[in-house]
Design goal:
The structure is a homodimer. Chain A is built from 7 helices and 3 strands; from the N terminus they run H-E-H-H-E-E-H-H-H-H. By secondary structure, chain A is mainly alpha-helical. Chain A has a 3-stranded antiparallel beta sheet. The first copy, chain A, is elongated and about 75 Å long. In chain A, 32% of the residues are buried. Chain A binds a DNA duplex through helix 2 and helix 3.
DNA sequence: GACGTGGGCATACCGAGTATGCATACTCCG
DNA sequence: CGGAGTATGCATACTCGGTATGCCCACGTC
């Protein structure tokens, strides 16, 4: 859903054609999440089909097609900015799933999984701070996106510490659960 | 990619068929990211095609097909747990994109967007803490997933405060860009 | 001045993966 | 019989990355 709304927001600045939209999207987010070229066109087709954008007059001698917002499209953009991002639509968090499966799967060393991830996240965090010092002042949008990644990485590290403590505590509480083969314990195998 | 690896990790416990896999996945994550039933089967087909799982013997009188890990599949699971989640594969962050576009689009009141989002996130956070007190001790995996969501929401709020400060500072630096009411100010409708 | 070569712009298509929903079938149970 | 739960498969739509195609322009060369 974010591409759809992203393109609409960019069109709020005025009519654009596909290639321009891709370039401005990349510029706004500092190429953190580069937008695939082909995707822009299919998304534009869908937006036109749904009546949120329309071709801006002439197909252009060079074959370029500029799009502009319709009234419905304008309303959609305003509504997007006026409403918070729903927490329900959050995508699957791969790391959380991985840890959740690690603690419930026998024979997996959860502590080492946590430690591996922490060093990985720390490395990413250092890379981020390096980027931030380089391109600090000039581009506000790009800088905010970087900050978002930093805040998220820091939260991830805190969460990993938290997991380590809780897992260690649970392991100490009942050390007999060393390695249990689960083979037969499926829930409610009907016959 | 997370579904693929998730199913593999579940099969590490022993042979299962599709419906069971879905049920156990939902149980592990506390139905936070419910797994679509149809998706399990198509993913299993792809895994079988790629040689990571194999049908476990008989097609079963009731038509059920149980799958088990192959040696390649085992290796894949071990590799997944042994390597950190890559920061490059992070999905597009809708909120970050929204803010980045808000600050670069004329006629959008960034401060009100930030405040709307903050109240929304706070509400979600309260809901999470309520859930956490209810189902705290019994299920470690589900509890860790909840904590992950809490840590993330807190980081989001911190980031929103940070954004507010930076935007306010930037606005103070060049106050001619005051605040244009969003309703009528469609920028540059060319004709 | 003619040529062709390479690079940037712009659009379009393809294949694989992801996601959701619907149709089906079968069993158990009231 | 009809509804709920188990189990599988198909249809559809969107995402994503790569790639082909054409076009113009700048450059250098003969």
């Amino acid at each position: 859903m974010s591409i759809r709304h992203g393109l609409l927001a960019l069109l709020e600045r005025g009519p654009r054609h596909g290639y321009q939209l891709r370039a401005e999207f990349d510029a706004a987010t500092g190429a953190t999440w580069p937008l695939n070229v082909g995707q822009v066109y299919s998304t534009l087709d869908r937006l036109e089909r749904d009546g949120l954008v329309a071709q801006d007059g002439d197909p252009d001698p060079d074959g370029r097609i500029a799009y502009r917002l319709t009234d419905t499209g304008h309303a959609e953009v305003r509504g997007w900015f006026a409403s918070p991002v729903s927490p329900k639509g959050a995508p699957r968090d791969e790391l959380a799933i991985k840890l959740a499966l690690a603690v419930t799967t026998p024979g997996v060393d959860v502590l080492s999984v946590v430690q591996t991830q922490r060093t990985g996240t720390m490395t990413a965090l250092q890379e981020l701070t390096r980027l931030k010092t380089r391109a600090a002042g000039d581009d506000l949008a790009w800088s905010l996106v970087l900050d978002s990644l930093v805040f998220r990485a820091e939260a991830e590290i805190r969460w990993l510490d938290h997991c380590e403590a809780r897992v260690a505590r649970a392991a100490a509480a009942r050390p007999q659960n060393a390695v249990v083969p689960v083979s037969t314990t499926g829930p409610a195998v009907r016959r």
